[in-house]
Automatic annotation (TrEMBL):
UniProt xrefs under NCBIfam families: PRK14017.1
GO terms classed as biological process: amino acid catabolic process; D-galactonate catabolic process
UniProt keyword Amino-acid biosynthesis present: no
Superkingdom, taxonomy of origin: Archaea
Chain ranges of the Mandelate racemase/muconate lactonizing enzyme C-terminal domain: 126-231
Name the UniProt record assigns to this protein: Galactonate dehydratase
CDD domains per record: D-galactonate_dehydratase
UniProt keyword annotations, A-Z: Lyase, Magnesium, Metal-binding
UniProt-listed Enzyme Commission number(s): 4.2.1.6
GO MF, any single term: galactonate dehydratase activity
Length: 383
């Protein structure tokens, strides 16, 4: 079997989808994307596939991963690793379809039958966010994550801090003590503020505080972790096992959140999970993207013991009205029940793509960039 061709589709809201074709008619799909840098990743995928994969045997997944990663003198980073990730998704999809098995069975077999998923909560007003949390709790979700605050200055006023803490209190009160609540600082909080804030949030019995600092400050994570009983998490802006290595050695986190679209795909995410397991660190994959990324990430989630929960942004509770699940031939592929997604059993990534719908969506211009925020003095704020 040989790889004969590929296509890339930019589709709303901010996805880039890859189709890999073979001479035996087996097709694999992947999702290579850096949100807000779609065209840059498109160019990287095109360069990698045309230079290294056309005419090659798609079943040599590990060899291709090493070749695509190691053949470049300059390696890593968000663009190259995300391009590699989408290619890796598609190669595993082809391999699973070739052998008639889900990818997670090829990676050692499933260790669970269902996986807890968490719901993202948006909004700023404590009452509005609490109402949304209560509604999603009634829909069956048992775990939630939300941003601690919007623009947050390196040194903030007591009022700004109190308002942010009130949001946490309102959500905890809305969902009750039998639900998981995670708070994402999103790298918006400075090191001088983070130490005090994590202690103030201990009263809410959080499942974790995510990205208390920017990834550039990963050497300081251990110091934050020592000052609180709340588990510390990070990882959505890390791009390989090499980025996670020192953080694990320093005992800086209790939870890592790798994203299968950014860490080099299924192959690398499986290794990251195994490496974290040796340090008794749990994995809660980051995944605010489409069904292909979600399906790829679940393949690791169902074969790795320390993957304990998973993000989703697909409205799994109501697949018949979810716009994001319409790219699947069967929007009900991901069976959601009582806060969990059930193990997919189809071959490859376990999904069937509605290619005609994707081609229709790809006629729409996709030009998504994250907002650029400013503080009141005009300086750029972290988003």
């Amino acid at each position: 079997m040989q790889i004969t061709d590929f296509e890339l589709f930019a589709v709303p809201p901010r996805w880039l989808l890859l189709k890999l074709e073979t001479d035996e008619g087996i097709v694999g799909w992947g999702e290579p994307i850096v949100q807000g840098r779609l065209e840059t990743v498109r160019a990287a995928v095109t360069e990698l596939v045309e230079a290294y994969l056309l005419g090659a045997d798609p079943l040599r997944t590990e060899y291709h991963w090493r070749k695509l990663y190691q053949s470049g003198y300059f390696r890593g980073g968000p663009i190259l690793m995300s391009a590699l990730a989408g290619i890796d998704h598609a190669l595993w999809d082809i391999k699973g379809r070739h052998y008639g098995a889900p990818v997670h069975e090829l990676l050692g077999g499933h260790v669970r039958n269902k996986l807890l998923v968490y719901q993202w909560l948006g909004g700023d007003d404590p009452e509005d966010v609490a109402a949304a949390a209560k509604e999603d709790r009634e829909r069956g979700y048992k775990a939630f994550k939300f941003n601690f605050a919007r623009e947050f200055r390196p040194i903030e006023t007591p009022n700004a801090v109190d308002h942010a803490v009130e949001r946490v209190a309102a959500i905890r009160d809305a969902v009750g003590d039998d639900a998981f609540v995670g708070v994402d600082f999103h790298g918006r909080v400075s090191k001088p503020m983070a130490a005090d804030l994590v202690q103030r949030l201990e009263q809410f019995d959080l499942m974790f505080i995510d990205q208390p600092l920017l990834p550039e400050q990963d050497a300081s994570f251990a110091g934050i972790a020592e000052q609180t009983t709340v588990p510390i998490a990070t990882g959505e802006r890390f791009y390989s096992r090499y980025d996670f290595k020192q953080l694990l050695v320093d005992d800086g986190v209790s939870i890592i959140q790798p994203d299968v679209t950014h860490v080099g795909g299924i192959s690398e995410m499986r290794k990251i999970a195994s490496m974290a397991e040796a340090f008794d660190v749990a994995v809660v994959p980051h995944c605010p993207l489409g069904p292909i990324a979600f399906a790829a990430s679940l393949q690791v989630g169902f074969c790795a013991q320390n993957v304990v929960m998973h993000e989703q942004d697909l409205d799994l509770h109501d697949p018949t009205t979810s716009q994001r699940l319409k790219v699947l031939e069967d929007p009900e592929t991901f069976r959601f029940e009582d806060g969990y997604v059930k193990r997919p059993t189809g071959p490859g990534l376990g999904i069937e793509i509605d290619e005609a719908h994707i081609r229709e969506l790809s006629q729409t211009e996709v030009n998504w960039y994250n907002p650029v925020w400013h503080h009141e003095d005009g300086s750029v704020a972290e988003w």
